[in-house]
Amino acid sequence: MATFDLNTPVQFVRGVGPIRAGELAALGIETVGDLIEYVPFRYETFPRSVPIGQLTADGNETVIGAVHSLRRSGPPGAQRVTATVVDGTGRCRVQWFHSPYVADQIQQGDCIRVSGRVTQYRDLAQFVNPRFDILDDAKDPFGRDEDRFEAVYPATASMPAKAIGRMVAGVLHQVIDRVVETLPESIRRGRGLALRRTAILRIHRPVRIEDAETARRRLAYDELLLTQLAIRMVRRRRDVDQSAAAIKVDDRVDARIRRRLPFALTPGQEGAVRQIVADLRDTRPMHRLLQADVGAGKTAVAVYAALAAIAARQQVAFLAPTEVLAQQHHRKVSQYLTDSRVRIGLLVGGLATRPRAALLNAVGAGEIDLLVGTHAMIEKDVSFRSLGLLIIDEQHKFGVAQRAIARAKGGSPHTLVMTATPIPRTLAMTFFGDLDITTISDSPPGRQPIRTHVVRSADADGMWNAIGQRTQSGEQAFVVCPLVEESDELDAKAVTVECERLRGGPLRGVGMDLLHGRMTAEQKENVMRRFRDGEVHVLVSTTVIEVGVDVPGATMMVIEDADRFGLSQLHQLRGRVGRGRRASDCWLLTDAWHDAARARLQVLVESTDGFRIAEADLALRGPGDLLGKRQHGMPDFRAANLGTDLDLVAAANADGGTILERDPLLRLPEFRALGDAIRRRFRGSGFLIDSAPA
Ligand code: ADP
Ligand code: MG
Fold this sequence. Notes:
By secondary structure, the chain is α/β, with parallel strands linked by helices. Among the domains are: 10-43 and 153-207, no CATH class; 48-146, CATH 2.40.50.140; 450-607, P-loop containing nucleotide triphosphate hydrolases (Rossmann fold), CATH 3.40.50.300. The protein has 24 helices and 21 strands. The chain has a seven-stranded parallel beta sheet with strand order 11-12-10-13-14-9-15, sandwiched between helices. Strands 16-21-20-17-19-18 form a six-stranded parallel beta sheet, sandwiched between helices. Helix 6 (196-204) crosses helix 7, helix 7 (209-241) crosses helix 24 (669-682) and helix 8 (251-260) crosses helix 10. The longest helix is centred in the N-terminal third of the chain and has 33 residues, at 209-241. It is globular, with a radius of gyration of 30 Å. 45% of the residues are buried.
């Protein structure tokens, strides 16, 4: 038998091979160690088994025994598989019809469990097409009869749960002894956590069903603790190693900046500005997350910070996730700075070679003070002369690695990241432990609440009529078509078709246009300008308008197939209206008219509070959807549930702090295993790119 250790690539496990290894890698399983840490999401219970000798016909029974013989028979297409199964008390017969694959799964000598109705065949008890599973070989320490729970694993189309179960079973007992304890005894006992080895064994093979939860909690704590430690170590290193330009804002500069803004800041904005100004004075780079609900006015705060940096002769990069948003920021900042000496550039994809080269030259020579742009900004040939401040808008649309690259453009600039997806506290502590957080909780004066309606698609005529009429008095509407797939082309088509349909029917005669990801930067800019200027009354669009778009004249938002969006995403989309002084409406169209779908959308009808909605989203769909997978750049949590494991999150955060206080680099013998575990967990994730713990 091959010998494995935890680092053995999973490809060498029996029954895996290169193709399966690829499929497993997609599930985050690369090594034997990953495999045994793969957490089941539920368990099937088998009834207690009876000795084969005591089987009686006509009952539902479960037996456990060894496969004594195994035979395939019958013509192709009508094959059957017949096995004899024995234990110490007798023999029974098992038949599978139309399931030739059974013979590929079971081998002579395997220990199997069979469960189903018992019939009589000559002098033998017989099972026909029973449920079955293959048990670990005789080494199973728990006694077969107690082994009644079958773990069911998160699966994919090409990697069924059963197959994963068999692979786990194939290695579990061989390697379980190699699992090392990562927690010092005092912490483990203090938190009432299981031994790591026991947890890994029991998560797959609970003796009682409570064991599974005890095991999961231990593994969940580990995930949370490792994340905390990694974040804190990254942060600590950063604070020691990096330094940025100290940017001082005196009263004169402050007054000059404020004169450029067309409104007085709200108290929330003032608070944010104060914190940022304090951060910028320091040579330790700022790492601040500015979070505020949609429409709260984050841009103005960013502009303040940018002008402060520019006044101190630093360059500023302002990164936005979409071209539409980058163009909007560029236009707005240019407006604020009309007749000033500040030199502003816009860098988006698809710029022609010459102008692009000229722009990059100017940036490199320090002749551009503020560069607004999209991902195009993180390409290799972009470099700054003295980047003092990096601003990342709608940061959840960027991956951790992208953020790191952007930062690397300027050594270690002060960094301000902004998000309109309010992160519930539990998540913030877990994902943004490396950032200081500022929250703006008010909004600019004079806002009208948005009325939200859930409408069945089939009953939408009245809505379209109302929209058509309101456009006649100058109001404007967004119509959002959902993503068809991850395909710009199909999206473009869906938007075009919908625009034609509306034009030919419900919105005949209304000035309409469309917007999608396939258009060039120039086309997008053009459409947005015409919409902003009121030449276009209805804009049919993909979710490219999801983030940041600010057209205060728009008062109507239609979201088609709303059930296909997450609640937070719907809230973001809805946030495109309600920005002016006129009352706005948002209609959520849906065909899914069952209670659950409506109850979910009802959350939006009842609340316009992004935090509440995010909490609901978290409870309903888990953090992945809320954060976007790319955003945190961390390996997924398998055991931890960030929606419900609040106590574990808090425990891990506190313990992470205590541990690093004692041993900042995890070099003491009692913490060394934790250090190793961190490196294993975050290898290749990009999360530690900024500054990997030594
Ligand atoms: P978000 O936080 O969603 O990025 P924006 O920065 O786009 O919000 O601001 C939303 C709208 O509110 C914009 O039209 C902006 O001009 C306006 N706004 C921002 N701050 C103020 C303020 N203090 N007073 C009045 N209007 C403001
Ligand atoms: Mg914004």
